[in-house]
Amino acid sequence: MRKTKMNVKKVVAIAIAGMMLLSLSGCGSKPQTAKESASTPTTQAQTVKTIQEGSLTFAMTGLYKPLNYKKDGELVGFDVEIGNEVAKRIGLKPNPVTNPWETIIQGLKGNKYDAIIASMTATPERAQQIDFSDPYYISGAQIFVAEGNTTIKTKDDLKGKVIGVIQSSTWKDLAEKYTDKIKPYSSDVFALQDLPSGRIDAVITDKIVGISAIKEQGLKLKPIDSVLTEDKICIGINKGNPELMKKLNDAIKGMVADGTYAKISDKWFGYNVLK
Q1: Rounded to whole angstroms, how far apart are CA atoms 102 and 168?
Q2: Cα gap 219→188, rounded to integer Å
Q3: Which residues is 165 bridged to in the sheet?
Q4: How is domain 55-139+231-269 classified at the architecture level of CATH?
Q5: Which of 274, 154, 164, 262 has its CA nearest to residue 213?
Q6: Is 249 helix (H, G, I), strand (E, B) or coil?
Q7: How many helices (H) and strands (E) does the chain have?
Q8: Are 210 and 202 within 8 A, CB to CB?
Q9: Could you give the CA distance from residue 156 to residue 122 in angstroms, rounded to a whole number?
Q10: Nearest to 137 by CA among 258, 18, 41, 271
C-alpha cells in the first residue's frame, strides 16, 4: 500500500511539474511571438523605387501655360505644384523635368523619369503602355477661334478648315474628324498665338489652356460650342509598380481631403478643376 501511495504521489508530482514546464514554455513563447509580429510590417513593407534615390522625378513639356511652363528658368504651374505636393506626401524630394510631348511616354518607359505629370488625358490607348493614377483634374477639349471669326460658330463649321493642335495629342484625333488640314505644333500656346494672324482657322486644345491664354496673354480669341470631350487628367507611371501607384493615389486623396488641392487649384484657375 505504501508503495502504491508513494507511486501515486510521484505521478502527481511529475504531472504538476510537467504542467509548470508547459506553462513556463507558453510564457516564454509570448515575447517571441510579439517580436515576430513586430517585425512582420518591416518585412512586408515595400519601399518605393525611383530612378534617383530619395526623389520623385516627374516630366512635363514646360510649354503648357498655366499648367506647366518656365518662369525665370524655373518650372512653375499647376502641374508642377501638384507634383511637388505629391512627392512631399510620399516622402520624396520633387524633381520636375521637361521632355518633348511626342516622346514623353517613351521617356517614361525608358526610365528617364518616374512619372508623367503633364496634364495627360488617360486614354485606353495610352493605358496599354502605362498605368494611370486617379484623376487630379478634369477638363475637356475646346475649340478656339480668333475673336473676329464669324464663319466658325459650331464644331460642324470646322469641316475643311485648317486646325492647329499639339502634335501626338488627343486633340489631333478629334481634329481628324472634321478636316485633313491639320497643322501640328510643339505647344498649344504657339497654336493659339497663330489664330489672330489667320495662319490657321481654329485650335482644339484644353479648355483651361485656351481660357488662360485669353486672360493672361490678352490673345483675341473666343471659345466655340461646348466642350468636345470630358477628359480625366491623371499621373502616368510605368506598369508593374503598385507601391508607387498606391502612394500617388493616397497623396491625391489626402490633398483633396485636407483642402490643399482646392487652394492650389484656386491659385491657378480661380475654381476647383477636379469638380
Answers
A1: 5
A2: 13
A3: 184
A4: 3-Layer(aba) Sandwich (3.40)
A5: 164
A6: helix
A7: 9, 13
A8: no
A9: 26
A10: 271
For residue 139, the SS3 value is strand
Cis amide bond preceding 66, omega within 30: yes
**pLDDT tens per residue, the chain (275 residues)?**
333 444 444 444 444 444 443 443 443 333 343 333 333 333 233 478 899 999 999 999 999 989 999 999 999 999 999 999 999 999 999 999 999 999 999 999 999 999 999 999 999 999 999 999 999 999 999 999 999 999 999 999 999 999 999 988 889 999 999 999 999 998 888 999 999 999 999 999 999 889 888 988 899 999 999 899 999 999 999 999 999 999 999 999 999 999 999 999 999 998 899 88
- The three cell numbers of residue 21 are 514546464
What are phi and psi for residue 239, nearest 5 degrees?
-70, 155
Task: Collapse the DSSP code of 234 into the 3-class scheme (helix H, G, I; strand E, B; otherwise coil) and give the result.
Answer: strand
Asked if residue 111 lies in contact with residue 161, where contact means CB atoms within 8 angstroms, the answer is no
In this structure, what C-alpha cell is assigned to residue 163?
A: 486646325
Q: What letter represents residue 19's amino acid?
A: M
- 99-102, long-range: CB within 8 Å, 24+ apart, which pairs? 99/59, 99/60, 99/61, 100/61, 100/186, 101/61, 101/63, 101/166, 101/167, 101/168, 101/169, 101/186, 102/167, 102/168
Domains 55-139+231-269 and 141-224 belong to one CATH topology: yes
**Neighbour tally for 244: CB within 10 Å:** 23
Domain ranges of the chain: 55-139+231-269, 141-224
In CATH, the architecture of 141-224 is 3-Layer(aba) Sandwich (3.40)
DSSP 103: G
- According to DSSP, residue 101 is labeled G
Report d(CA 249, CA 132) in Å as an integer: 10
CA 149 to chain centroid, in Å, comes to 37
